[in-house]
Design a protein that fits this description.
mainly alpha; 0% strand; globular
């Protein structure tokens, strides 16, 4: 299977769960032991607004490869009119781009690169 032919929303579907798993592990390893606190802290990473911010920062810093940028742009430009009420369509598309990138890298089994991206997001 050619991963580049996978629908970008399918990549984002996969990437969403992987991304959230990294965030949860990160917060637990920081020593947060209260579930309510974990949920509150997780929002600072998993909201569409924050995901869009992190992706924009990576793009501004030249952190992503050309191939990774292509995946992000495909996801960002995918024709959709639906988005959560909590954010505008542009923010939602950037968040989808980050999730699609994570899903894409996972299907390519590029765990090390996913870790580099997550460390960038966590400021490590």
């Amino acid at each position: 299977m050619n991963v580049l032919e996978v629908n970008v929303l399918v990549l984002a579907y996969l990437g969403d769960t992987i991304y959230e798993n990294y965030v949860r592990k990160h917060l637990i390893l920081k020593g947060i032991g209260n579930v309510n606190q974990l949920q509150k802290e997780a929002v600072s990473f998993v909201s569409a607004k924050q995901q869009a911010f992190f992706l924009s920062k990576m793009m501004e810093d030249g952190f992503l490869t050309d191939c990774e940028l292509d995946v992000v742009k495909r996801a960002r430009n995918y024709k959709t009119t639906s988005h959560p009420k909590s954010c505008d369509i542009v923010t939602y598309k950037y968040a989808t781009g980050l999730e699609a990138l994570i899903g894409y890298l996972d299907l390519l089994n590029q765990k090390e690169r996913i870790l580099e991206i997550m460390n960038f997001i966590f400021g490590e």
